[in-house]
Write a structure and sequence with these properties.
The complex is a heterodimer.
Chain A: E1 5-15, H1 25-32, E2 44-45, E3 48-57, E4 60-69, H2 71-78, H3 94-101, H4 104-109, E5 111-113, E6 121-123, E7 127-129, E8 132-134, E9 141-148, E10 163-170, E11 173-183, H5 184-188, E12 189-191, H6 203-218, E13 225-229, E14 238-242, H7 245-260, E15 263-265, E16 271-282, E17 297-299, E18 313-316, H8 318-363
Parallel strand pairs in A: 2-10
Antiparallel strand pairs in A: 1-11, 1-16, 3-4, 4-8, 5-6, 7-11, 8-11, 9-10, 12-14, 13-14, 13-18, 15-16, 16-17
Helix pairs in contact in A: 3-6
Chain B: E1 2-14, H1 47-57, H2 75-82, E2 85-88, E3 100-106, E4 117-122, E5 125-130, H3 136-142, H4 148-160, H5 169-176, H6 180-192, H7 196-203, E6 230-246, H8 248-256, E7 260-263, E8 267-276
Antiparallel strand pairs in B: 1-6, 1-8, 2-6, 3-6, 4-5, 7-8
Helix pairs in contact in B: 1-2, 4-6, 6-7
The chains are: A alpha+beta, B alpha+beta.
């Protein structure tokens, strides 16, 4: 059977906290910890937490707190070598834009470029990943640190010292676990049409700018055509191109290559790196599930990945597609015409009501 | 009847009363502050969220919840979503709300000019300039195609001497502010030549209602345009389960789908199992809202 998606579990190990939250976390912290641990200072750096009710005693409810690395932080670090930053200025330069969106990183991570009076370009990521949650019993504490450097002093303050004290949550050795999936349906099709709100590439740039760049990374690319989702109730064709099975396997290997090498480093001394990855090929979504222990494969090298991806789309011949497109265009035009007629009718009704009211007033 | 059990993790939901994050409406038909948001009470989810999730799990396309679109949801799947039951397991604080965290969000480019300012001393007085530091290279691009850049360098050389050209531009502007009588004609040329921002800085004149001098970065030139497309927003992360009563036909459709989906902001959904539907199974759950 062909593979529909790939589930994975990731174990991370590290030292210290790598993903901090805002100072506002102190309200949640103070509500969840016992009196002795409460914090009343305002210059405190807290990590990101999840709290779980673990029991009750005479003093009230007892909560366990687990440190987490958010999914956004993990995603940022998985693709850290692909995207240093995203600048909207790229959108204004067709060559730079197409070089960027035709890269392996962009296909895997996804992107969205939106600008006024232009069609947005959007590609959803095939990678779904949860936050990594603490799995060991290490307990974090609030410690005092000092910082040196210029600071702004209010006019009514006499303290002109250039060092300050602040508090920060800290922890020692820590392990985390995250899970996720790779959606092969999302990966295998690149839309060149606005019909379904997901145009990933401007079709006018496809041949001249996009295709040559993508072919450098993935080899020969199929010509675009009209596709429908297999077994879908909606048979309206979408213009785009499919990646070949070999290209899908290559991209998935590239994704796991990045995942296996994730190492998050903070200048404050904390680090977290991937220690173990396990994958499961999903051929039957109801049978190959995340919560079942069977069929997990330990992954130490991306070259181990070998599967036959399921094909979720099928090509529609151009003649049929064109007839559907004509029908859509006709329906759209009819709908616009009806809407215009409705507006004219509503305006006429409003005017008639106004005239009637005016006539009544004049009579009075 | 069977029941499909879906587990979701890390599904982010913005507080619609506080959130500045709205659905992107590039045509500008809606005013930003009056844009519709989905109000979801604590403890449940919206039918539209669940309907879109089921669309994806069954291999269909989701349709936007608020924004106008050509994609219409499939009625049979919407009916399934209406019959679903939700159990959210995230911990609440003492006021009964979900604990929120800070998340980096993408802002709409339409509303993304940088608002940070920095100090510049004009005629010895502290003034503020919007945006990052001005450099000679930025000025060169700003004056590109006008010949004003070399004219400005000659002006600086004439007033402050040749050495001044190797100084930082902002330092040069600060020193020039003491010689406004000599820079006035150049500043007027900037103002009449469409290079208003720099002309105003040289003259020391702000726009009437503004506290700051405008930066050269908010120019129409895309090489200079500097926008901040990231911001922070508060978000609650929800974990829980969705119970959907299904028929064998629906299960067959799920079997042909990808078996995984994203949910709300950054959340992931996994299929947890299929069990016989019973009242015990859905004990403690809530129905989704409109």
């Amino acid at each position: 059977m062909a593979t529909k998606s790939i589930l994975f579990k990731v174990a991370l190990q590290g030292h210290g906290i790598v993903n901090y939250d805002s100072n506002d976390q102190k309200w949640a912290w103070n509500a969840m910890v016992r009196n002795s641990e409460r914090v009343n200072h305002s210059n405190v750096q807290f990590g990101k937490h999840r709290y779980y009710l673990s029991g009750k005693d005479e003093k009230g409810e007892i909560y366990d707190r687990h440190l987490v690395i958010s999914s956004d932080c993990l995603r940022h670090n998985i693709f850290i070598d692909d995207f240093l930053f995203q600048s909207p200025n790229v959108f204004a330069h067709p060559v730079l834009l197409n070089k960027m969106i035709a890269s392996v990183g962009a296909l895997l991570r996804g992107y969205m470029f939106a600008q006024e009076e232009k069609s947005a370009l959007k590609k959803k990521s095939c990678l779904n990943i949860t936050e990594a949650e603490q799995t060991n019993d290490a307990i974090s504490t609030i410690e005092t640190f000092s910082r040196s450097g210029h600071r702004e002093v209010r006019e009514d303050e006499n303290d002109t010292a250039d060092n300050s004290f602040f508090k920060r949550e800290s922890i020692g050795e820590i392990t985390y676990a995250a899970k996720g999936s790779v959606d092969l349906k999302e990966l295998q099709f690149v839309s060149l049409s606005e019909l379904y709100d997901r145009m990933a590439v401007n079709s006018d740039d496809f041949t001249t700018l996009y295709k040559p760049e993508l072919e450098k990374a993935l080899g020969p690319i199929h010509d675009p055509g009209y596709y429908v989702i297999k077994n879908s109730a909606v048979q309206t064709p979408e213009y785009g191109f499919m990646l070949s099975s070999g290209q899908i396997v290559f991209l998935v290997r590239e994704l796991f290559k990045r995942l296996l090498r994730v190492s998050i480093n903070k200048s404050s001394g904390g680090y977290a790196e991937v220690a173990e990855v396990q994958i499961k090929y999903v051929e039957d979504p109801l049978k190959h599930r995340m919560n079942i222990d069977a069929d997990w494969i330990p992954l130490s090298d991306e070259e181990q990945i070998q599967f036959d991806p399921d094909i979720f789309y099928e090509r529609m011949d151009d003649e049929t597609a064109r007839s559907y497109t004509k029908l859509i265009e006709k329906n759209l035009a009819d709908s616009k015409k009806r809407s215009k007629e409705r507006k004219i009718e509503q305006k006429a009704e409003r005017n008639a009501r106004k005239n009637a009211a005016r006539a009544v007033l004049e009579q009075k | 009847m069977k029941c499909l059990i879906l587990q979701f993790k890390g599904a982010g939901i913005f507080d619609p009363r506080r959130s500045k994050d709205k659905v992107c409406d590039l045509n500008g038909k809606w005013k930003r502050n009056s844009f519709p948001t989905i109000q979801v009470p604590v403890g449940t989810l919206s039918k539209r969220h669940i309907s879109n999730l089921l669309h994806v799990l069954m291999g269909e396309r989701p349709s936007p919840s608020i924004r106008a679109s050509l994609i219409e949801p499939i009625t049979e799947i919407v009916t399934l979503a209406e019959k679903a039951h939700v159990k959210i397991e995230s911990t609440k604080d003492k006021s009964g709300k979900y604990i929120q965290e800070v998340k980096t969000v993408r802002k709409s480019v339409v509303d993304a000019w940088p608002t940070a300012t920095h100090e510049i001393k004009l005629k010895g007085k502290s003034e503020y300039l919007k945006g990052p530091i001005l450099t000679w290279e930025i000025l060169r691009v700003f004056f590109d195609g006008t010949g004003l850049f070399s004219e400005f360098r000659n002006l600086v050389e004439g007033i402050l001497g040749k050495d001044a050209l190797s100084n930082r531009l902002e330092h040069v502007i600060e020193r020039l502010s003491h010689h406004r009588d000599k820079t006035r004609s150049f500043a007027d040329k900037c103002l009449s030549g469409g290079k208003t921002q720099f002309g105003k800085i040289l003259k020391g004149e702000k726009y009437t209602s503004s506290k700051y001098f405008n930066s050269l970065y908010d120019s129409r030139d895309m090489r200079l345009r500097l926008t901040v497309t990231k911001g922070v927003e508060k978000i609650a992360r929800l974990d829980g389960r969705i119970y959907v009563p299904v028929t064998d036909e629906v299960l067959e459709k799920v079997r042909r789908g990808p078996g995984t989906a994203t949910f709300l902001e950054g959340g992931v959904v996994f299929i947890e199992g299929v069990e016989d539907f019973s009242e015990n199974l859905i004990f403690g759950t809530q129905e989704p809202v409109e």
